[in-house]
Amino acid sequence: MSAATVIVGAAGALGEAITRRLASEGHDLVLAGRDLDTLQALAQQLPSARAVACDVTKDDDVTSLAQQVGPTRMLVFTPAAPTAGGIDAAPIEAILTAVDVKVGGLLRLLRALQPAPQTAPRTASTDRPVAIVIGGNLAYDPIPHAATSGIANAAQANAVRQLEHSASPWRIHVIAPGPVATERWEQLAAAEAQTRGISIEQVRTEATAASPLGRLTSTEEVAWTVSMLADPHAAALHGSTLLLDTGRRTAIP
User: Fold this and answer.
1) Contact 160, 174 (CB under 8 A)
2) What are the φ/ψ torsions at residue 70 (nearest 5 degrees)?
3) What pLDDT does residue 210 have?
4) In b/e form, how buried is each residue of 113-149, taking b as 16+ CB within 10 angstroms?
5) What's residue 253's pLDDT?
6) Which of 7, 106, 196, 240 sits at a 20 to 30 Å CA gap from 165?
7) pLDDT at position 34
8) d(Cα 49, Cα 229) in Å, to the nearest integer?
9) Residue-level pLDDT at 124
10) What's the pLDDT at 31?
11) In order along the chain (253 residues), what is the average pLDDT of each group of 10 residues?
12) Cβ atoms 36, 51 nearer than 8 A
């Protein structure tokens, strides 16, 4: 069996889009996450995929995943931080949980997984296994109702910059989408509308108006970016953050 591509959070909307794209490109996939039933149903639809239960906040789960996977050529890390309101109201425990998911989970995986052997000297970054991390633009452009996501994604981006200069065998990248058109975003928009006492249509209008393209990012665009970064020629982007926010940025990482 060839070295595996591990997609953590494959049961989510972004994870599924990435999974289907990479499956079409011939990757030997391991789909990991907490919702094993959904992962197994997805794996059954693909030519070379298997599902493994894993909660990235639990050391034992991550160790078990690594033992089942074996040599790894690519890690795609997609878990989303839980949301719990703005900076004035979000419980400290919720903020710490979000950081444990986005930073603790990533570090547990990178330390536990066995990178596929390199066929060139370690200095040849094009030959390194790759870790692709899905962050978010809220790390740089926070909004009032998502403190946990902003803080966790900012901490994750900082961790990646440190990993860039460490002795880690991985080349690593962050993809920071803006709002992505998913069911999760609709749920967050509904919660924001209720908090502000406005309609969800107004929240949608504000979200799209913030983009020069007048729309949200699509899951297919995120999946395409993962595919691009999987190419060895993307090694020059080692440690960088790609903002997929349809031009709404005000702060540049």
Assistant:
1) yes
2) 80, -155
3) 85
4) bebbeeeeeeeebebbbbbbbbbbbbbbbbeebbbbb
5) 74
6) 7
7) 94
8) 20
9) 47
10) 98
11) 90 95 96 96 94 97 96 96 85 95 98 80 64 93 86 96 93 92 80 83 85 91 96 93 90 76
12) yes
Give me the sign of the Cα torsion angle 198, 202, 204, 208: negative
Interatomic CA distance for residues 172 and 248, integer angstroms: 24
Structural domains in the chain plus CATH codes: 4-179+218-244 (3.40.50.720), 181-216 (no CATH)
For every residue of the chain, DSSP letters joined together read -PPEEEEETTTSHHHHHHHHHHHHTT--EEEEES-HHHHHHHHTTSSSEEEEE--TT-HHHHHHHHHHH-EEEEEEE-PPPPP-B-TTTS-HHHHHHHHIIIIIHHHHHHHHSEEPPPSS-TT-GGGS-EEEEE--GGGTS--TTBHHHHHHHHHHHHHHHHHHTSS-S-EEEEEEESSB-SHHHHHHHHHHHHHHTS-HHHHHHHHHHTSTTSSPBPHHHHHHHHHHHHSGGGGGGTT-EEEESTT--SS--
